[in-house]
């Protein structure tokens, strides 16, 4: 797939993302893959900003506590 604009890519992969928050299963079939996280960091922020609902942040640890 070739998209000229970031908005076109988002609408193609995540149709209706700016509506009610989809269930977690939605994202199993709708994803954008890239070789590096840096390549999609801005794209992730754009998609998240379009989603309705309360924002939640989850933290992880790099070692066992």
UniProtKB/TrEMBL annotation:
Protein origin, superkingdom: Eukaryota
Name under which the protein is recorded: Uncharacterized protein
């Amino acid at each position: 797939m070739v998209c000229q604009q970031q908005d076109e890519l988002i609408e193609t992969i995540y149709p209706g993302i700016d509506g009610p928050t989809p269930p977690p299963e939605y994202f199993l079939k709708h994803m954008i893959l890239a070789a590096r996280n840096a390549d999609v960091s801005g794209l992730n922020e754009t998609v998240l900003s379009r989603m309705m609902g309360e924002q939640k942040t989850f933290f992880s640890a790099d070692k066992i506590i």
